[in-house]
Amino acid sequence: MAEITNSREIRVGERRVTVRELTVAEVRQWLGDASSRQQIDTVDAMLFEDISLPDLARMTSLDVDSMGDWQPSQLREVIAAAKDMNKDFFALRERIVSAFLPTQPEN
């Protein structure tokens, strides 16, 4: 049986990147991987507010090492496409983050 994916190719400058929608199984795998990570690279995890570089790699044809040659503004274009293709993933991620962050008192 052939794998069916929802994907599209985008251009960022002269580069081409395939961005794809994660399957439900891949989202489950992401959650399991995230909870078992032993060592976290600060830049990989926190350069962008709403996605880590390893998470972006899961959704694209890029790998984390190759992203080192990209400017953050270029990666934001890829992130925008990834967000468009993975709305449910980002909504889940937001709910998880909200559940573990302390609420801020209102002034």
Explain the overall architecture.
There is one protein chain. This protein is mainly alpha-helical and 107 residues long. The chain has one domain. The chain contains six helices and two strands. It has a two-stranded antiparallel ribbon. A hairpin with a 2-residue loop joins strand 1 and strand 2 (15-20). The longest helix has 14 residues, at 72-85. The radius of gyration is 15 Å and the shape is globular. The protein starts with 6 loop residues before the first strand and ends in a 7-residue tail after the last helix. The mean pLDDT is 89.
Distance between the terminal alpha carbons, to the nearest Å?
Answer: 57 Å
Question: pLDDT below 50 for ≥5 consecutive residues: which ranges?
Answer: none
Helix content: 40-55%
Largest sheet geometry: 2 strands, antiparallel
Total domains: 1
Give a quick rundown of the structure.
This protein is mainly alpha-helical and 107 residues long.
Walk me through the topology.
Layout: E1 7-12, E2 15-20, H1 24-36, H2 42-46, H3 53-59, H4 64-67, H5 72-85, H6 87-100
Antiparallel strand pairs: 1-2
Q: What labels describe this entry?
A:
2 strands; two-stranded antiparallel ribbon; globular; 107 residues; 11% strand; mainly alpha
